[in-house]
Design a protein that fits this description.
A hairpin with a 4-residue loop joins strand 16 and strand 17. The protein is α+β, with helices and mostly antiparallel strands and 316 residues long. The protein is built from seven helices and 19 strands. The strands form five sheets. A nine-stranded antiparallel beta sheet has the order 2-3-4-5-9-10-13-18-19. Strands 1-12-11 form a three-stranded antiparallel beta sheet, with no helix packed on it.
């Protein structure tokens, strides 16, 4: 719906885009691009810059990496000294947060309201009983009911800059953190290099603009069958793409597939959703949220995307 789609075509062995050369500072030349790879937020990350200026590209790529790791350190739920760790460990006491954290909490609050509670950053506690490892282990109704008492953004007192969680509740910004990091990493890279840049964190990506000469960046959508092949190729000249799906995280029981996309109001997976939704938007944060909200609509995902006027592609 709205995005130019082409089927992946094999490149000839002598295609310039396939030629690589290892350079200093962790860079690899791939065709016309300098590519820098690293790992953050438990996902492979890549900065791709169309330039021949190696030192300038290295500075930009390292700045993107530093920004990604700063955001991971600050907002990880796994770190006691992160902002999220301090909020969750406050034992019901109020916690004052900085402007950046307030911005993300305001965004989460907005998404909760427009989704009528389908998006809820207090629902991360459900990970304690739902482990989407491809097995058939479905938690009991009693376990789900017990955790549902600890879910509900409306129970949280939030008025910037102060947040107070009822004791036993948690917040988790994992649903928006990676997409936010993509946008921030691209901004950090652009401050140090004027060349065309693509930042890709595990398939969520943003570009600084078109390639040199006005060409588009070509990116692949991962197949939902985990074959390693692309389901399709997308062309993008501006903005961002984000994908939400269950290719890697799911449960399978009696022939029924349970997606890792959970309805916080029920404490259970959303049924009837597409296998994958890819959305194009101005920012990766916006694209990621629309893709997630579409998955949360279940069988009504396509209707939701059409109503929102989203540029999107669904795999069922």
């Amino acid at each position: 719906m709205g995005l130019p789609l082409t089927r992946p075509m094999p490149m000839p062995d002598d295609d310039p885009a396939k030629r690589t050369e290892v350079l200093p500072d962790g860079l690899v030349r791939a065709g016309d691009d300098l590519v820098y790879s690293f790992r953050a937020m438990a996902t492979p990350c890549e900065v791709r810059i169309e330039t021949g200026a190696v030192e300038e590209a290295a500075r930009a790529a390292r700045a993107a990496e530093a920004e990604a790791k700063r955001i991971e350190q600050k907002f990880s739920r796994y770190l006691d000294d992160s902002v999220i760790g301090r909020i969750n460990d406050a034992g019901g006491a109020p916690v004052e947060v900085d402007d950046e954290t307030a911005l993300l909490l305001d965004f989460a609050d907005h998404c909760h309201r427009v989704s009528e509670g389908l998006f809820d950053i207090t629902s991360g506690v459900l990970r304690r009983i739902w482990r989407f490892d491809g097995s058939d282990m479905i938690p009991s109704d009693a376990d789900v009911r017990a955790l549902r008492r600890q879910i509900g953004w409306k129970k949280v007192e939030w008025r910037a800059p102060t947040i107070r969680l009822p004791e036993g509740m948690e917040v988790d910004l994992g649903g928006i953190g990676k997409e936010y990091a993509v946008d921030r990493a691209l901004a950090a890279a652009r401050m140090r290099c004027p060349a065309p840049i693509l930042v890709n964190f595990g398939g969520d990506l943003a570009v600084s603009g078109p390639r040199i000469g006005g060409g588009r960046w070509t990116v692949a959508i991962e197949s939902v069958d985990r074959s390693g092949e692309a389901a399709a190729m997308l062309e993008i000249a501006a903005g961002a793409l984000a994908t939400s799906g269950d290719a890697r995280r799911f449960l399978l029981r009696n022939g029924v597939r349970y997606s890792h996309i959970l309805d916080p109001r029920k404490g259970r997976p959303v049924m009837g959703a597409p296998r994958s939704v890819t959305v194009a938007a101005q920012t990766c944060l916006e694209a990621g949220m629309i893709a997630t909200l579409a998955m949360l609509q279940g069988r009504k995902a396509e209707t939701f995307l059409q109503r929102e006027g989203a540029k999107a592609w669904c795999i069922r």
